[in-house]
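Hey, I was hoping to borrow your eyes for a little while. I've been puzzling over a protein and I'd love to understand its fold better. The fold is given in discrete form, as structure tokens running alongside the sequence. I'd be grateful if you could look everything over and explain what you see. No rush at all, and the record is pasted right below.
>
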Amino acid sequence: MQTSKDVGNKILASMKNQNIVDYTFKKSLQVVTQASKSKIKVDGETVDVDPQLLFQRSLFENNGLPREAHKSTLAAALWNTVDCAASDNDIDDAVYILDGGSLLHRIPWTRGESFKSICKVYIDYITRLYPSGSTVVVFDGYSQQPSTKDITHIRRNLSIRNSPDIHFTDDML
């Protein structure tokens, strides 16, 4: 099966050394998109396809809410592919901006640890991997106005059954 990139490269190769005025695109060399077909074959069977419905189903859940993004999958791929820590070859005046929420999920915690000890592990991790004075840790914050997180909050509220309230006191710090 040819990819659209392969088809494009084939078209470019056929244009080589040709006068642009004389060149015509052959229909047989063009990519056929899903939107231009109303039927496709799956395992030898012809199936009707509604491209708009297919597009909507890829973006929205049955309850009408947008599908949830799988940022954890992207984060895992980045952590496994790219060295996200500072290195000796880095630019001297670079500033590293870290997603605090992502780091909270990245650093292992021991059950029953105090808030203070979790903070210490968190800070030790950052100071060990990033140069002093060149790192900013950012946590998402959302105002009362509509935001991109509203859908996530709605989805969470639909699934919450009964969770305890957590209250922080001075002795926890």
Summary: The mean pLDDT is 78.
